[in-house]
Amino acid sequence: MRKALEKTADFVCRWMTLWVVLFSALAFLNPEPFKPIGKYISYLLGVIMLGMGLTMSLKDFRLVFTRPKDVFYGVVLRYLIMPVVGFLVAKALGLPAALAAGMVLLGSCPSGTGSNVMTYIAKGDTALSVTVSSVNTVLAPFLTPTIFLLLAGAMIPIDTEALLWDIVKMVLIPVTAGVLLHMAAPKQVEKVSKIVPVLSVVCIITILSSVVALNAAKMATMALILCVAVVLHNGLGLLLGYGSARSLGMPEEKSRAVSFEIGMENSGLTVALALAHLDPMAALPAAICSIWQFISGSLLAGYWAHKSEQMELPEEAETAVAK
Known about the structure:
Shape: globular
Helix content: over 70%
Order of helices and strands: HHHHHHHHHHHHHHH
Number of strands: 0
Number of helices: 15
Structural class: mainly alpha
Largest sheet: none
Strand content: under 5%
Distance between the termini: 49 Å
C-alpha cells in the first residue's frame, strides 16, 4: 500500500506542470466551481509551508556558519534583484497599478522550493540552494513587507503590519512547526517524506486554479501582456542571478544554485498575500509565473546538466588513456 502511494505521489509530482496547466485551463473555462476555494488559500499555503518544514532540519542552516559569504550573496541577490526587476518590468510595460504591485510582490517574496530541485538537476550546489531557500524563507516576514512598501507603496494602499503578520502566520509558524516535528520524530517524518510533496502539489494546483477562476474575465483581456511581464521577470532573474554570482567570483556550481534561487519564486505565498491585501488581479503574475518558471527552469537545468556531462567526457577519456 505504501509503495503504491509513493508511486502515485512520484507520478503526480513529476507531471506537476501538466496538472497546473490542465486545472488552470478548466478554471478559466468554467470558473464558478473553483471560486469558493479562494477563502481557504491561506490555509492551503500553510499546509505547503508545513510540508516544506518537514523536509528541513537544523543542518539546512549549517552553511550559514561554514560558508557565510556564499549564503550572504544568495540572500542579498535574491532580495535585491527580483523586487527591482519586477518594478522596472511593470513600469516599462505600463502595467495597471494592481498588476504592477503584483509584480513587485512576486519579486519581494522568498525563493520557491522548486529552486532546490532545479539546482539538483542542473548539477549545481544543492546544499547552497537549500540553505539560501531556508534563510530566505525565515527572513521573509521582515524583508518582504519592507521591500514591497519601498517599491510599491505609491502604487497601491498597503497595511505593512498586517502583511508582516500574515507572512508570520502563513510561512514562519508552519515552517517552524514542520522543522520541530522533524526534529522530534525523525523516523515518523521519514516514513511520510515521499508522500508529503504530493500534498503540497495538490495544494498549489488548488490555489492557482482558484486564482485563475477569480480573475478569468480579466485574464482574457490581459493574457499577452501578463505573459510578457512574467517571462521577462523570470528570464532576467535567472540571467542576472547567474551573472552576478559569476562576477562575484563564485564557481559554476554555486552560480547555478544562485541563479535558480533568484529566478524561482514562491508563487503560492505571493498569491495568498495578494488576495488578502491587494486587488485579486495582483495575484495573476504569480499564477502565471508558477507555470512558466517550471518550464524555463526545467529547460535551463537540462541544458546545464547536459553541459556538465559533455565536460565530464573528456576528463574520463584522459583518465582512461593515463591508465
